[in-house]
């Protein structure tokens, strides 16, 4: 028999908003760093949840597709102050980074001349260093044995050769199949937390997730692209629904989403991704930059709002839907095995993105390689903040441009 979690005092949405606004303004360093910020602020200092409950929420968010750190923040807000608290947590944590990236996207067309071009190129080198660091860290953590290392290698090859969203999904399915057979020791803790609502609402949220996934795809297909915002909603919702691992792993899916159809040039895409490293908050706020840069009437603040809402929504529907079902799902060994294999495939997807588009677009010669190697060393060896890496790459690119 499972033991029910102890009763905890409920907070207010205003309290949640204030706590997450502080985190949204100060949480530099990407998704993995965010987990440390959340633990220090909400577990150790504020004691909203226990260490065990925090670990269970984290396991759930890593189990699901979507932005893991934002899903964790959403879940913490939900546990603390109900659905209003969940919305307050998301809004406060995302707003600062989204606003900064909208401002950068708005200013980008007005940045002209050699100096601006060199600075933007520096941001592309930031993306190269950050993604390389992400691949290394994820490979160590998610590919600890030969079967999972092989899954990552095969997934990389599949994506580099195939190069479509369907090939990426096939690589993820391949990882899940290998995980079922090879990852026999994978386990997930599903004990503990009660979200304050039952399975009926959980299943309803999962049905809404599936209906939106199918309905937006069908609607965009029937419109033939004539309804621009519908196509934007479908594209960003699909990216948010299919990305496992969160953070940098969204890069290949978003490239498929906005670069391949010709909505945004690849150079602008990578410059925005580099700029996203310099702001606090969730990596998925990159969608605010992309939405702003969309062509015509689909861009600007409206495009940013649609892109941000669409890319975050599937992850929140999933975590809200699975939370009341989590205990029974996590106790099934097959689920944990499949997720272990999927995570290994995700490493391969990011490895493919490291080469194309990141390396192919950012590296023009030996000087760029040298700048990127120093940036990678700062991240991996010295463990400096990403904002220091941004400053280095931009300054070095400007200096190289003057030679």
Explain what this protein looks like in three dimensions.
The protein has 403 residues and is mainly α. It has helices at residues 13-26, 31-45, 51-63, 68-107, 113-142, 146-162, 165-182, 199-223, 228-242, 250-259, 266-276, 286-293, 300-322, 326-330, 333-362, 366-380, 386-402. The longest helix is centred in the first third of the chain and has 40 residues, at 68-107. The chain is globular. The model is unreliable at 1-6 (pLDDT under 50).
Provide a compact summary of the structure.
With 403 residues, this protein is an all-alpha fold.
Write down the secondary-structure element order: HHHHHHHHHHHHHHHHH
**Main β-sheet, in a few words?**
none
Please mark out the parts with pLDDT under 50 across 5 or more consecutive residues, or reply none: 1-6
Number of helices, where a helix is a run of at least 4 consecutive DSSP H or I residues: 17
Report the end-to-end length measured between terminal Cα atoms: 71 Å
Overall pLDDT level: 86
Structural class computed from helices and strand pairing? mainly alpha
Percent of residues in helices comes to: over 70%
What is the CA-atom radius of gyration, in angstroms?
21 Å
